[in-house]
Amino acid sequence: MPRENYQKRLDGLRRDVVVMGEFVRERYDTAIEAAETGDDDLAREVIEGDHEINDRYLELEDECTELLALQQPVAGDLRLVTASFKISTDLERVGDLATNLAGYGGPDGGFHPAVDFRNLAVDAGDMVADAVAAYEMGDPEACRTVAARDDDLDERCRRASEAVVRDLLEADRARDARNGTAEGKPDRLAAALDDVSRSLLAIRDVERVGDHAVNIAARALYMVENDDELIY
Amino acid sequence: MATQEPDDKLISTEVSADETVRNERPDETVLAAKDLDVYYGEDRAIDDVSIEIPENKVTALIGPSGCGKSTFLRCINRMNDQIDVCRVDGDVVFKGKNVYDGDVDPVALRRKIGMVFQKPNPFPKSIRENVTYGLEVQGKPATEGDVERALRGAALYEEVHDKLDTSGLDLSGGQQQRLCIARAIAPDPEVILMDEPTSALDPVAASKIEDLIDTLVEEYTVIIVTHNMQQAARISDKTAVFLTGGELVEFDDTATIFENPADSRVEDYITGKFG
What are the ABC transporter domain coordinates in residue numbering (chain B) (predicted)? Predict the structure, then answer.
């Protein structure tokens, strides 16, 4: 086949994006564990290891730039390079969100009881993994399936946020009914506010992980079918 | 294809001095091939090609060596007439007139459809005479204004205006090619055919020609054969892809050809997997 070295570089680019996806997924899972357990060592591993993800992103950016400058890819090859560049950006952002989540665990880990954090977070992570697999396999239907799952994730995140806020308001009303007895326990109030804040931030970030999964699926679909229906 | 009246100028050797009104008709077909076959002896070089070339656009013809793109280009202004074994079946319709009709004067045709070749080929005459040649063979005295207009049209005037009587052969390769373009546009053609016009030039000279093509298309229709696919992508509005056997495999907007071609053979060719 002509341009054999060029074809090897394209194959290598695709492989490296998939490897970055797997690496990000591992870090993200560690972040979920750190958030749930409050394990400082795990959280530190995620936060201090973020530069490794950034380094991989920069390497992929360099490779895409060099392929564009030196090989002038066109048609399907061009879509592979541009999609890979955009997907690596989304993966890098998922890595950033993993560092956020790792830090939300608080001293004892866990979140507000109204939030099924693990299931939400794992489902969002699965969406990222499935989007990367769709990119790897060039599977347009898998891309569309990932995008469709995001509506469900968004709805569950919205309900979880509402439950947290509702619980906060009900606790406030109960405190008023007790004639301000909570004022005598500022530590409990501060702890409740911290719990709510961390929970809401975690929900927001998990929802964003789902959005990045959709972005990855959208770029993969564009790469395979030149179809921008999922790109917004 | 828009219906047009046959162009009487192809029949008469007299060319009206009236300027053709080139209003904005971006999607009008100026030239079309219909069921075109070209043979060299028993060998078929063009296989049943039909295509409509839009006016005031750059159309690039690309494809591997021997695919028939240059043969097709030469059919348009009947340059293949000069090859004894060449036989053309089908129509090449220019502004409503089949250029292979018996009453078409090939010399008059070539004034309306000029040509620029791969290697700059100025006449061994002065710069001025190179430009005025096309007008003088029509029996029209060329004015200084005609010379300046053609040289400005070829983006060469500023570089040569003070040495119009020096030999065209004294110019650089890139300047010589622009002189050839000036010679081609002096008779005020409708279409300019270019057969790999930058392949013999260095990158700077080639980029000047590319810029010039971008300007020329405001007044003329340009059809260019190029082996440089990046050049086709840069400068053309439409791209026609020929593959071995003289088959026109795909013709579409250049952006479509280079971003998402419909035919997998085109994808393989432009991405370098072909062959």
Answer: 31-270
Three-class SS of residue B37?
A: strand
Taking CA–CA distances from B233, the nearest residue in chain A reads A74
pLDDT under 50 in chain A at which residues? Answer: 182, 184
Q: What CATH number corresponds to the domain at position B242?
A: 3.40.50.300
A69 touches chain B (CB under 8 A): no
Whether the Cβ atoms of residue A49 and residue A117 lie closer than 8 Å to each other: no
Q: B-chain residues within 8 Å CB-CB of A73?
A: 271
Does B220 contact chain A (CB < 8 Å)?
no
Residues 93-152, chain A, touching B (beta carbon < 8 A): none
Domains of chain A, by residue range, sit at: 4-225
B223: β partners: B59, B193
CATH topology of domain A4-225: Methane Monooxygenase Hydroxylase; Chain G, domain 1 (1.20.58)
- Put simply, the answer to whether A75 touches B260 (Cβ < 8 Å) is yes
B245 found inside a domain:
yes
DSSP state of A180: S
Domain extent for B244: 28-121+189-270
Closest CA to B172 of B205, B198, B208: B205
Tens of pLDDT, residues B26-63? 569 999 999 999 999 999 999 999 999 999 999 999 99
